[in-house]
Amino acid sequence: MKLLDVTSVPDWYGDNKFIRHGFRPPKPCFKYCIKSSVLNFHNESGNIFSHLIGALFFAFLWYRSMSCNVYQNFSLIDKLIFSAFFFGIIICLLLSTLFHTFRCHSRRVLKLFAKLDYCGITLLIAASFVPWIYYGFYYLPTQRNLYLTSTIFLCMVCFVLSLFDKFSEPELRKIRSCVFLLNGCSAIFPCFHLYLQLYMFGPTAAPLAFKSILLLILMGTLYIIGALCYMFKIPERLCPGKFDLWFHSHQIFHTLVIVAGLMYFHSLSLMAEARLNQRMHQNNDLTFLTTD
C-alpha cells in the first residue's frame, strides 16, 4: 500500500499539518481499515498498537490482581471497586484503538469513533476518581458522597459534550483538551483534603496513604504533560515532517496514559491496603475491648 502525504488526503483526515507523510489512502471499508492497520506501517500504527497492547496488558493485570493472595482478603464490594478502574481503562484504550484504526474510513465514521474515543476518556476519568475517593474517604461518608457526586456530575457534562459533532472538530483541539484537563484537575481538591486528614489513618496506614497521594500527583502530572503535548502538537511542531511515524505528540500522549494508569493502579492498591490495615486495626481493638 502506497502511503500518502498530507496534501493528498482530505482535511478531515490530515488534521495535524505538522505530520507530513505516512497517511493511509482513505477508503470507506471497515475490512480495509483493519487490514491496512495490521499489515502496513503508517503514522497511526503507534497509536493503534500502543493502546491495543495497553488494553491487553491491563486485562491481564486485572485477572492477576483478582487472583492474587493479597486481594483474597477483599470483600466483594472492594473487588468491584477495583474492577471499576480496570473496566474504565480497558474500555478507554479499546475505543482509542478503534478510533485510530477506522480513522481513514470516512468523515462520518471518523466523527462517530471520535465521539466514542472522548466518551472513553470520560469513562477513564470517572473510573479513576471513584475508587480512589471511595477508599480515601472511607470513614468520612459525607465528604465521600460530596466528592463522588461532583465527580460524576463533571464526567456527565464531559460525556454530553462528547456527543456533539462540533466537539470533535480539529479547531477545538485545545478547548477539548482543556475540558478534559479541568475535569481531571478537579481531583486536586479531594487529594489535598485527604492529605490534611492523614492523621486519621493511624501510624501503620498513614505512610501507605501518603505514598498513594504522591503517586496520584505523579499520575496527574503525566496526564497533564501528555495533554499539553497533544494540545500544542509537540514535538512535531518544532520539526515538521520529522516525527511522522514515531514519537509525535499523539504517541507520547498514548504512552503517558498507560504509564499514568500503572501509577494509578499502584496508588489505588496502596490506598486500599491502608484502609484494610486500618479496618483490621479497628477490629483488633474492638476484639481486645470485648475480651477485656
Described by the principal axes of the CA atoms, the overall outline is elongated
* Tally of discrete structural domains: 1
Write down the overall mean pLDDT: 90
> Approximately how much beta-strand content do the residues carry?
under 5%
Show unreliable segments: 284-291
Question: How far apart lie the N and C ends?
Answer: 79 Å
Which bin fits the share of residues in helices?
Answer: over 70%
Determine the CATH topology: Rhopdopsin 7-helix transmembrane proteins
Count of strand segments: 2
Name of the CATH class: Mainly Alpha
What is the CATH architecture assignment?
A: Up-down Bundle
The Cα radius of gyration reads 22 Å
Q: What's the main sheet like?
A: 2 strands, antiparallel
The helix/strand series, from N terminus to C terminus, equals EEHHHHHHHHH
Count of helix runs = 9
What is the strand arrangement across the widest sheet?
1-2
Family: Belongs to the ADIPOR family.
Pfam family, one: HlyIII
Keywords: Membrane, Metal-binding, Transmembrane, Transmembrane helix, Zinc
Membrane topology: Multi-pass membrane protein
Topology (elements, then pairings):
Layout (H helix, E strand, L loop, with lengths): L3 E2 L15 E3 L6 H10 L5 H23 L8 H26 L5 H30 L4 H22 L10 H13 L2 H9 L5 H31 L16 H43 L1
Antiparallel strand pairs: 1-2
Helix pairs in contact: 2-3, 2-9, 3-4, 3-9, 4-5, 4-9, 6-8, 7-8, 8-9
